[in-house]
């Protein structure tokens, strides 16, 4: 059963507050810029632009309008009444479960929050072309849509292994006008190729990351643009029950949707932050993507964080039925939250995620992505440990339309 982590004392929270606000991309020992010298000037320019737009009322007003009229914000904080009843005990007591409906945004996932903002930055910087990498395809679709809206050329790199599972998103990217380039492998190989493409044309191209990994300022930028999720959740919770959530629950691949929900509440010591990684076929099988559960600290794609690696520091291949969780690392800020004990991290297997997906479909008529289903799966273990009427918010980070074929074709699944 999950246990509450040890209380984070005031000294630890002072450190969390200080680190979370620094401007150097460091979260304790994590983060930083471990990149070739050729990239430093471009990253410094990007950081300057980022710092400027954070204080620029014109940009912020333009972004707020795009989030409202184009993305479809704010998204509902939905009371999942039948799912809540499912977890009540024999006395009829149990938690109240709410879903933050990021699956209802334009493109069907939280990725558009960041994509539209960074595409606007690219436009302001005079860039003509955007380069990105995608795994589950949701970031690719979001980036292609944002580029179409802003009249930017768009090139999306995706791994051949991921293309097989996410063919519908591949077609959507092409329909939106993006050039899609296949890379042998999965998301980590696609990311490497996208960065190489950008390095070859930094004067006119903009690299648009969709995850909270990579060199500074990329993780902080993505987290900032996703933090709208948590800000809305705080406001909506006050409207619905007059207080904060007791527990926030999100899946963790690299961490963009988790930090998007968590960041607003990091300094609220009375709010539990819980992330759920993909245990795949089981942690002991070696076929998983549980970086925080089984990884070690190292440097990959320009930043220090927890990684899946062997004794010689070679990156191990991650696995999950949810393509969006298949990355061998995790964001530096989540790595920091793990080390300080501010956030708790657990795992869910493929089987548990599939069962949770089916449960939400049958009880609420909502089809969650397989990524989000990992967070939903953890309710089985979490709910029996919670006091009655505990307010739990689960980030339903994406729609499961893209996963229907995987669900029906999974050899162990019986619909």
Q: What can you tell me about this protein's structure?
A:
With 415 residues, the protein is α/β, with parallel strands linked by helices. The chain folds into 2 domains: 35-69 and 111-215, 3-Layer(aba) Sandwich (Rossmann fold), CATH 3.40.50.1100; 72-107 and 224-409, Rossmann fold. The protein is built from 18 helices and 14 strands. It has helices at residues 10-20, 37-55, 57-71, 81-86, 111-124, 138-150, 160-165, 167-175, 187-199, 218-226, 228-241, 256-262, 291-294, 332-340, 350-364, 370-377, 379-382, 404-409; strands at residues 26-27, 30-31, 77-79, 96-101, 129-134, 153-159, 179-183, 205-207, 247-251, 272-280, 296-300, 303-307, 343-349, 391-396. The strands form 4 sheets. A 6-stranded mixed sheet has the order 3-4-14-9-10-13, sandwiched between helices. A 4-stranded parallel sheet has the order 7-6-5-8, sandwiched between helices. Strand 1 and strand 2 (30-31) form a beta hairpin. Helix 5 runs parallel beside helix 6.
Summarize the structure.
With 415 residues, the chain is of the alpha/beta class. Helices cover 44% and strands 17% of the residues. The longest helix is centred in the N-terminal third of the chain and has 19 residues, at 37-55.
Give the SSE layout.
Elements: H1 10-20, E1 26-27, E2 30-31, H2 37-55, H3 57-71, E3 77-79, H4 81-86, E4 96-101, H5 111-124, E5 129-134, H6 138-150, E6 153-159, H7 160-165, H8 167-175, E7 179-183, H9 187-199, E8 205-207, H10 218-226, H11 228-241, E9 247-251, H12 256-262, E10 272-280, H13 291-294, E11 296-300, E12 303-307, H14 332-340, E13 343-349, H15 350-364, H16 370-377, H17 379-382, E14 391-396, H18 404-409
Parallel strand pairs: 4-14, 5-6, 5-8, 6-7, 9-10, 9-14, 10-13
Antiparallel strand pairs: 1-2, 3-4, 11-12
